[in-house]
Amino acid sequence: MVLTKNVYEFPFEKKYFTKAVSDPRAHFGPAEHAIDFPLKENTPILAPLDGVVVDVKMDSKEGGPDPKYNDLKYINYITLEHSKGEFSQYAHLKYNNAYVVVGDTVRTGQKIALSGNTGPSSGPHLHFQVFKLNNLGTKVEALEINFKESLEVDRSVGPPDKGNEKLLEEIERTRKEFESSSK
Predict the structure, then answer these.
(1) CB of 144 closer than 8 Å to CB of 34
(2) Pick from 37, 32, 4, 33: which is nearest to 19 by CA?
(3) Residue 8: which of 75, 76, 101, 90 has the closest Cα?
(4) Which CATH number does 14-149 carry?
(5) Model-level pTM?
(6) Extents of the domains making up the chain
């Protein structure tokens, strides 16, 4: 486990915080240390650290627990590049609601998007992760996020949410494929 060198703020105002979860059935490989924050749709998502916008995809209106949504084309996301070679990424964002474009410089606390429920999702939430690229820039390495404030992340595996069983089966199949291709 590698901890981020940067120290990050929460990617939304603290008043919206309810809990932080990271189900290992869904978060593995490049998303191993990702955190899901349940948020109502339209919650402002904030830059947790100064950076530059390097990727924005906001063209999907669809999402849910059906395995068909386990395809990149359904996920809206923004990726920021920070100092020390670290990148942060925000997924499941609301359709066509980015407040930034590629190349923009953002400041800590600046609104970058609104939360949504696109892509593979059992309900509205923000998927937040930090990573770095290997020396060739071809492989993502997941980083455990060093937050400015203490954060307890529930990494336990509970029963699947009602209606979410098929999505978890598809994610498990994907995880096994990832593990066998990484060997």
Answers:
(1) no
(2) 37
(3) 90
(4) 2.70.70.10
(5) 0.85
(6) 14-149
